[in-house]
Write a structure and sequence with these properties.
Distance between the termini of chain B: 30 Å
Shape of chain A: rod-shaped
Largest sheet of chain A: none
Low-confidence stretches of chain B: 1-8, 48-54, 604-610
Largest sheet of chain B: 7 strands, mixed
Order of helices and strands of chain A: HHH
Shape of chain B: elongated
Largest interface: A-B, 31 and 36 residues
Mean pLDDT of chain A: 78
Radius of gyration of chain B: 33 Å
Radius of gyration of chain A: 21 Å
Low-confidence stretches of chain A: 46-55
Oligomer: heterodimer
Strand order of the largest sheet of chain B: 16-28-27-26-17-24-25
Number of strands of chain B: 28
Mean pLDDT of chain B: 80
CATH superfamily of one domain in chain B: HAD superfamily/HAD-like
Helix content of chain A: over 70%
Helix content of chain B: 40-55%
CATH class of one domain in chain B: Alpha Beta
Structural class of chain B: alpha+beta
CATH architecture of one domain in chain B: 3-Layer(aba) Sandwich
Chain lengths: 55, 812
C-alpha cells in the first residue's frame, strides 16, 4: 500500500506541470487576445486559395 | 466569397461585412475599409502576382511624403521618447491605437506591414483592443514615415496628448486568471484527497494515509490562502478602515475560519477539516469575479481632455515653423493653427480674424468670429484660414483644462449610494456574528470543545458564497446582454445605480438631435418658389450672419451663387437686413419682418406646426419663411415622452433657446428645458438635483458635458461610433439604440430584482446550514455538499432569470 505515497506524489507533480503550463499561458498573454490568433492562422501564405475564391 | 461580389449596397465586396454609411469606393465597388480594398486589388492583379508565395507589396505605390507636416512632430526626440515602448540601439517598438481596425483584412494588411517597407521587422495586431504593435529599425524607417505609411493605408493611428504620458498600467485580468487557476488546481486535488474521508472506510480512518492526505491538503491549500484570496482580505480591510462592513468582511471571516479550523483539526488529528470546501469557496468566488469583470477592450471610460488634444502644435520661430510638443508650449510662444485644428491653450489672436467652432466645449453649434487681439480659449476648433496665435496661458491652466483640475476629476469616482451587497452585508455580518456568539455561549457550559466547534461552524456555513455570487452573475449577465444591444456599462455598480435612477437629464445637441445640418424648407406666402435671383440675394445676406439659423440658410442656398451686398445690419434677437442689387432683404422673426407691412396675415406658429422659422421680406413685402426642423433622433422623441411619465426629465442645452417652442410642443410642460448652459452650469445643475436627493442619470456627448457626466450618478456618453472619443463616464451608448432607453431602464430594475431573489435563495441555504451548525454537527460532508449546491443553484437562477427578463422586456 505504501506505493500510494509514491503515486500521489507523482500525480501531484503531473498536476503541477499543468499548473505551470497554465501560468505560462496566462503570462504570455494568451488569455488577453482571444480573437486575432484565430484570424492569423487562416491568412498565412495561402494566396492561391484566396484567388480561387475571387474567381 | 462569390456572393459578396454581387454589387450590393453597404456590404463590403471583399469581406462581406457591412460597409457602413461611408464605404471606401474603388473599382466601382464598395469596401468596408482600405484594408479590404488593398487585398482586393492585389487579388485582382491576377494569378501571376499570386504565383509567388506572397504578393510583392513593396511594389505598391504609397506616397510617404507628408507635405502638410502633419506628422512632423514625430521627429521630435522628446515625443519619440514618450511614444516608443522601448528602444535598443536602432530597434524601436511602438504600440498604436488604430480605431479603424475592424475586419480580418485589416489584420492581414497590418500584419504584413513589413512587406510594404524595409525596416519593419514585426507588426502584430491586438484586434479586440484595436492596437498595433510594431518593431522597426529607425535607420531604415523613421517613426514619422511609419505613421505616414499607416495613414496612407487608411490606418491612421490616434495620437493624442494622453499618449505622451507614461503608460498607465492597463487593468489586466492576468492576475485574476492566475489566482483562479491556482484555486482551481488546489480545489481539484484536495477534492480527490478528501474523497476517502467522505466514504469513511473504517480502515482508512485509522490508517497513516489519513494524516498524510491531510498534510498534502494543507500544503495545497496554502497558496489559495496566501495568494488567491488576498483580494478579499484587502477589500475587507479597506472597508473596515472606512468603517464600512462590505460583503468581503463575512467572506474573509469565512475563509480564515475555514482554513485555520481545518489546519487545526488535521494537525491535532481530530478531524479531516474542510479544506475542499475552503478551496472550492475561493474558486467559485473568483469565477464570479471573472464573470463580473466584463471588459470592453476597445472602449475607454476614463478619458479626459488629454485624449482629445493633439500631441504637438506648430510654433513659429525665427527660422520658420517647427512642431513642439504641447507640454513644452510656453507663455508667449507664437503658434500657427490650421483649418480644423484645435486651439491647445488660451491665446490671443495675432491674425486679423478667425472663425472658431466652440461646440465641443460649450455645446453650442455656432461659429464665433474673433478679431485681432481677442482672447481665444483652448478647445475651440479653427475653421477656415490658418491663424497665428500668441499663447497667454499654459495648456494645463487653460479654460477647458481648468475644469479637470477640480477635485471631482482628481479623485476616483465614488458612488454616493451604498451598493446593494454592502447594505445586505452589514446586517448579514451582524446576524451571523450574533448567532455564532450565541451558540458559543450556549454550548460553553457543557463543553468547551463543542462551543468552539459550534462557533466556527456557524462562521463557516454562513460564509456568503452564494450571496456573493448573486450580484456577479445576475448583473454580470445583464451587462453582457446590454453590451450586445449597444449599451456598454463600465461595471455592475453602474448598472445597479441605473436601476435606482429617478431623474434623467439629456443634453440636447448631439444627444437628442443628430449631428449634421438640419433640413431647411422654404414655404412661400406670396408668390411661388424662390427665383434664382431671390436665392442669391437671400444667400448674400444670410451668409453675413453667424447666427446658426442664418448659417443653415446660407448652407442650403450654397448653389445659388454670389451677389453684391451693399449694406448689412444685424438686430440682436430680431433679424438681419441687407441691400443686395438695390433690393432690401430682411430675414428674421415674424415681428422683424411683418412690421414692414403689418396688414399681412401671417399664420401664427401654432397653426403650421413647430420648428424654427426665419421670415423673409423682399423690398418690404413678406415673401415667405424658411422652416428649419432640427433633426431629432428617430424614435427618441417617443422614448422621451414615454420616460417623462416615470422620471423627472430635464433637457439641457448650450444653445440659444430658439428651439424652445418646438421642444415644448413635443414634450409638454412636464419636461424641463434649460438653455444657454455652460459646462460648469450643467455640472452645478446636476449637483443641485443630487442635493435634493435625486438619483441622476445624465446623457450627453462631448467635452462640454464631461463635468455633468462625471458629477451625475450614472453618466452615459452618447456616441455615433464607439471608437470615437467619449468623455469619462459610466456607460457608453451607441446613438442609434437610444430610443430603447426606456426598455433598458426597466431591464436594469428587473435585474436588480433577480439579485434580490437570488439573495433569498442563498438565505434559505444558509438557514439549512445554520441549523446544522448551531447544534455543533456540521460534518465536512455536509459542508462539501451545501457549498457547491447553493452556489450552483444561485448561479443558474441568476443567469437564467436575467436572460428570461431580457426576453420578456424586449431587450434581446
Amino acid at each position: 500500500m505504501s506505493v500510494i505515497y509514491v503515486l500521489i506524489i507523482v500525480s501531484l507533480f503531473v498536476a503541477i506541470g499543468f499548473l505551470i503550463a497554465f501560468i505560462w499561458a496566462v503570462k504570455s498573454g494568451q488569455f488577453e487576445d482571444t480573437y486575432t490568433p484565430s484570424v492569423r492562422i487562416l491568412m498565412d501564405d495561402k494566396p492561391k486559395n484566396d484567388a480561387k475564391e475571387v474567381e | 466569397m462569390l456572393h459578396a461580389a454581387e454589387p450590393r449596397e453597404s456590404v463590403c465586396v471583399h469581406c462581406g461585412e457591412p460597409a457602413g454609411k461611408h464605404p471606401v469606393v474603388a473599382h466601382g465597388q464598395a469596401f468596408c475599409c482600405d484594408g479590404c480594398r488593398i487585398v482586393y486589388e492585389l487579388l485582382r492583379e491576377g494569378p501571376e502576382s499570386l504565383a509567388c508565395d506572397l504578393p510583392d507589396l513593396s511594389q505598391k505605390k504609397i506616397d510617404l511624403d507628408d507635405p502638410s507636416n502633419k506628422f512632423a512632430f514625430l521627429d521630435l526626440p522628446e515625443v519619440q521618447d514618450q511614444l516608443l515602448d522601448f528602444r535598443e540601439g536602432d530597434t524601436c517598438a511602438v504600440t498604436f491605437f488604430i480605431p479603424s481596425i475592424h475586419c480580418s483584412s485589416c489584420i492581414w494588411v497590418l500584419e504584413n506591414l513589413y512587406k510594404f517597407r524595409d525596416g519593419i521587422s514585426q507588426s502584430r495586431v491586438q484586434f479586440l483592443r484595436k492596437e498595433l504593435y510594431v518593431v522597426f529599425d529607425r535607420q531604415k524607417i523613421s517613426l514619422r514615415e511609419l505613421v505616414s505609411l499607416l495613414a496612407a493605408l487608411g490606418y491612421e493611428p490616434r495620437l493624442h496628448l494622453s499618449d505622451l504620458e507614461k503608460e498607465k498600467p492597463r487593468s489586466s485580468n492576468r492576475s485574476l486568471y492566475l489566482k483562479l487557476g491556482v484555486a482551481g488546481f488546489a480545489f481539484g486535488n484536495i477534492m480527490l484527497l478528501a474523497l476517502p474521508e467522505y466514504l469513511a472506510f473504517e480502515s482508512f480512518l485509522s490508517s497513516p494515509f489519513r494524516a498524510f492526505f491531510g498534510y498534502v491538503s494543507i500544503v495545497l491549500a496554502l497558496p489559495v490562502l496566501l495568494y488567491s484570496s488576498t483580494e478579499y482580505f484587502a477589500s475587507a480591510w479597506a472597508g473596515l478602515r472606512h468603517r464600512i462592513v462590505n460583503i468581503d468582511v463575512p467572506i474573509s471571516i469565512g475563509i480564515l475560519v475555514l482554513f485555520f479550523r481545518s489546519a487545526f483539526e488535521i494537525l491535532t488529528r481530530t478531524g479531516a477539516g474542510y479544506l475542499d470546501s475552503f478551496t472550492g469557496l475561493v474558486f467559485f468566488l473568483l469565477i464570479g469575479k471573472a464573470f463580473q469583470k466584463k471588459t470592453y477592450d476597445a472602449l475607454s471610460f476614463e478619458r479626459d481632455f488629454r485624449s482629445y488634444f493633439p500631441i504637438s502644435v506648430l510654433r513659429i520661430e525665427a527660422d520658420g515653423e517647427r512642431p513642439v510638443a504641447l507640454p513644452d508650449l510656453r507663455v508667449g510662444d507664437r503658434i500657427r493653427i490650421r483649418h480644423q485644428e484645435l486651439i491647445p491653450a488660451d491665446a490671443s489672436l495675432l491674425s486679423a480674424e478667425a472663425w472658431i467652432d466652440y461646440s465641443f466645449v460649450t455645446g453650442e453649434s455656432r461659429l464665433v468670429k474673433k478679431s485681432k487681439g481677442d482672447i481665444l480659449f483652448a478647445g475651440g476648433r479653427i475653421k477656415g484660414k490658418a491663424v497665428e496665435l500668441q499663447v497667454i496661458k499654459e495648456v494645463s491652466q487653460s479654460y477647458l483644462t481648468r475644469m479637470w483640475n477640480r477635485d471631482l476629476f482628481r479623485e476616483q469616482k465614488k458612488s454616493r449610494l451604498a451598493s446593494l451587497s454592502d447594505t445586505v452585508a452589514k446586517y448579514f455580518t451582524a446576524v451571523v456574528l450574533a448567532l455564532a456568539a450565541g451558540s458559543f455561549f450556549y454550548w460553553f457550559p457543557q463543553s468547551h470543545a463543542l462551543a468552539w466547534n459550534a462557533f466556527t461552524a456557524v462562521l463557516i456555513v454562513a460564509c456568503p458564497c452564494a450571496l456573493a455570487l448573486s450580484i456577479p452573475f445576475a448583473l454580470g449577465n445583464a451587462l453582457r446582454i446590454l453590451g450586445r444591444q449597444g449599451l456598454f456599462m463600465k461595471n455592475t455598480e453602474a448598472l445597479e445605480i441605473m436601476s435606482r435612477v429617478d431623474t434623467l437629464v439629456f443634453d440636447k445637441t448631439g444627444t437628442l438631435t443628430e449631428q449634421g445640418s438640419a433640413p431647411v424648407v422654404f414655404h412661400p406666402l406670396n408668390g411661388g418658389a424662390l427665383t434664382s435671383d431671390e436665392k442669391r440675394w437671400i444667400r448674400a445676406v444670410a451668409c453675413q450672419s453667424t447666427h446658426p439659423l442664418s448659417r443653415q440658410i446660407c448652407q442650403m442656398l450654397e448653389q445659388a451663387g454670389n451677389a453684391d451686398l451693399r449694406e448689412f445690419h444685424e438686430q440682436e434677437g430680431q433679424g438681419i437686413e441687407g441691400k443686395v442689387d438695390r433690393n432690401r432683404i430682411r430675414l428674421g422673426s415674424k415681428l422683424w419682418v411683418a412690421h414692414l407691412n403689418s396688414d399681412l396675415d401671417i399664420p401664427s406658429d401654432s397653426e403650421t406646426g413647430a420648428g424654427s422659422r426665419v421670415y423673409v421680406a423682399i423690398n418690404g413685402a413678406v415673401r415667405g419663411y424658411f422652416a428649419i426642423m432640427p433633426k431629432y433622433r428617430k424614435g427618441l422623441l417617443q422614448a422621451v415622452r414615454e420616460l417623462k411619465s416615470r422620471y423627472f426629465v430635464t433637457i439641457l442645452s448650450g444653445d440659444q433657446d430658439f428651439e424652445r417652442p418646438l421642444l415644448e410642443t413635443e414634450f409638454g410642460k412636464s419636461v424641463h428645458l434649460l438653455f444657454r448652459q455652460s459646462p460648469e452650469a450643467k455640472l452645478e445643475f446636476i449637483h443641485r438635483l443630487q442635493q435634493a436627493n435625486k438619483t441622476v442619470m445624465m446623457l450627453g456627448d462631448g467635452l462640454n458635458d464631461a463635468g455633468a457626466l462625471r458629477q451625475s450618478d450614472v453618466g452615459v456618453a452618447i456616441t455615433e461610433n464607439t471608437a470615437a472619443f467619449t468623455p469619462s463616464c459610466d456607460a457608453i451608448f451607441t446613438a442609434d439604440r437610444l430610443p430603447r432607453l426606456p426598455r433598458f431602464l426597466r431591464f436594469s430594475q428587473s435585474s436588480v430584482r433577480v439579485v434580490l431573489a437570488s439573495f433569498a435563495i442563498s438565505f434559505l441555504y444558509n438557514i439549512v446550514g445554520l441549523s446544522f451548525a448551531v447544534s455543533g454537527q456540521l460534518s465536512p460532508v455536509i459542508a462539501a455538499i451545501l457549498m457547491p449546491l447553493s452556489s450552483i443553484s444561485v448561479v443558474a437562477f441568476a443567469t437564467l432569470a436575467t436572460k428570461i427578463s431580457a426576453k420578456r422586456l424586449g431587450v434581446e
